[in-house]
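[recover] target loaded
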């Protein structure tokens, strides 16, 4: 991607999508974002009235007017095909979707339609177009399900610890079945396999990034998705923090700037490769903070308490279905392929995110 590319980002007004749009636009690429605005990213409570707005839309309008916005639903096959024909992207990043595992249990058919039919429409249209060189699918660690049978854990004071001292995270060859995934995990996994399969049988240059927990500024966490941002919002507004299970669940966390750097770097290294060379290796990658950037919920609460200088009220309830006691990405494959590793530690990232929320409190609490 040394030259200027045209890039279509689905879900491009969401948290990850709009950060990618900005990063790639700053590098000079021509970007279009496609979104149906189903995830309003500000919920303003003004006394009894609740307003929903799309902050990312307004932000891009003001600071990045060159980024084109296309507003419709990826479930609309014809509109997707027409947009691809008109805009003629060389690269598609598919980030749109229903993102909450909790909501997918409540409404599996909505999840299925958004995540599977939506993905299929975009992928199948891309397959028809000779001008598209690369397709990047934003997948999730939830494809591995609750991974209970794959690791033995010891319960420490604030977190679960792998019994195997040499554990360096879950690799891309970890089992994807024999566990509970939630419908969200399944719809993302089905999309993930479709993307891999189309790469193999139609000679497309398809990549799958299975993300762990991504966090950062301009993330509007909600119940069931974006837990770091959601928990801090509650903590700083004096609300009780809800913990499902015992709070010792461990995640590797990755700041959004590190993810944007990675994607820009990956595309610039791979988009000029011919399909034969590109597809000589598997293009599925686990992406996250890795073994050096982990935190448990209880540790996160401790960090918030020191930032806010007060004790937080916690309420514990039952474990959520499919919750992983420990998920850490093994990021050695992406490191060995393109030399990327995260730079932003949890300490720094949490400080950046909480500062952004504190500075922008009027978006949430006025
Ligand atoms: N944030 C994370 O920690 C994380 C972790 C693993 C995987 N992911 C994956 O990354 C992707 C982006 O997540 P995010 O955190 O930016 O979530 P997000 O909700 O902020 O962004 C998703 C965007 O997709 C749009 N969208 C949803 N359904 C659509 C449809 N049918 N048509 C058009 N647009 C639609 C939404 O309006 C939203 O703007 C998702 O696919 C998610 O599964 C995210």
């Amino acid at each position: 991607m040394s030259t200027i590319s045209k890039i279509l980002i689905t879900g491009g007004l969401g948290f990850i999508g709009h950060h990618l749009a900005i990063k790639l636009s700053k590098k000079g690429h021509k970007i279009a974002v496609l979104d149906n605005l189903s995830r309003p990213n500000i919920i303003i409570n003004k006394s009894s009235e609740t307003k929903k707005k799309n902050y990312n839309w307004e932000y891009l309008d003001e600071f990045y007017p060159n980024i084109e916005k296309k507003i419709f639903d990826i479930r609309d096959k014809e509109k997707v095909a027409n947009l691809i024909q008109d805009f003629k992207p060389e690269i598609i990043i598919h980030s749109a979707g229903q993102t909450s595992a909790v909501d997918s249990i409540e409404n599996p058919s909505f999840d299925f339609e958004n995540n599977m039919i939506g993905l299929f429409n975009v992928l199948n249209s891309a397959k028809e177009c000779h001008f598209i060189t690369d397709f990047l699918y934003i997948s999730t660690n939830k494809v591995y399900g609750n991974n209970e049978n794959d690791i033995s854990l010891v319960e420490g004071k604030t977190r679960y610890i792998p019994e195997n001292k040499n554990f360096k995270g879950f690799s891309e060859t970890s089992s994807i079945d024999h566990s509970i995934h939630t419908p969200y995990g399944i719809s993302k996994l089905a999309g993930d396999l479709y993307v891999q399969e189309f790469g193999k049988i139609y000679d497309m240059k398809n990549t799958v990034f299975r993300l762990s927990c991504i966090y950062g500024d301009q993330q509007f966490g909600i119940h069931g998705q974006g837990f770091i941002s959601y928990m801090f919002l509650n903590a700083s507004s004096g609300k009780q923090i809800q913990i499902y299970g015992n709070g010792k669940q461990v995640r590797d966390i990755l700041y959004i700037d590190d993810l944007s750097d990675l994607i820009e770097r990956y595309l610039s290294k791979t988009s000029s490769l011919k399909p034969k060379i590109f597809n000589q290796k598997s293009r599925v990658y686990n992406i996250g903070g890795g073994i050096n950037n982990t935190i448990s919920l209880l540790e996160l609460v401790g960090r918030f308490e020191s930032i806010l200088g007060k004790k937080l009220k916690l309420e514990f309830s039952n474990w959520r279905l499919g919750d992983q006691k420990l998920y850490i990405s093994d990021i050695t494959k992406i490191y060995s392929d393109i030399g990327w590793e995260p730079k932003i530690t949890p300490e720094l990232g949490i400080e950046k995110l909480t500062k952004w929320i504190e500075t922008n409190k009027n978006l949430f609490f006025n």
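[recover] notes: The longest helix spans residues 108-127.
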